Amino acid sequence: MMRWIDVLIYARYSNPEPCKRVEKTEEAWQRQLTPDQYHVMRQKGTERAYRNAYCRAYDPGLYACAGCGSILFSSAEKYHAISGWPSFTQPISKSAVKYAFDDSHQMQRIEALCNVCDCHLGHVFNDGPAPGGLRYCINSASLSKLDSPV
Q1: Which residues cross the membrane (predicted)?
Q2: Which of 65, 86, 101, 119 is the most buried (most CB within 10 A)?
Q3: Domains of the chain by range and CATH?
């Protein structure tokens, strides 16, 4: 289970090794992603609160990176945080998400990125529910939903 201290250590010293790497030129990313996805995932933008695909979606399944298809989160860890964006308590594995300090917009936050392709996902905060206390606040534009097998 990831804890806040783990997130801080990864952001400060070294992130876990990903299972693979996906690297593309910015031109290739622009061809692959929609303009909204490109803005969020490659330019570190954000989508409008409550007006996104997965904010209110709680069907079973897995959430993958919209850029490279790597599995990032399970619906079992998704909860209603009233933040306006999909919120998760844990990533699917310790090596799924990469962490970086983000001092933009006069705030100090921890950015969450796909550990395979470095696409911006959102941010992680230490105000989530027990036992881990984490809240991964993730842009829907960064995710693709994979339905659970029946």
Answers
A1: none
A2: 86
A3: 4-14+21-147 (2.170.150.20)
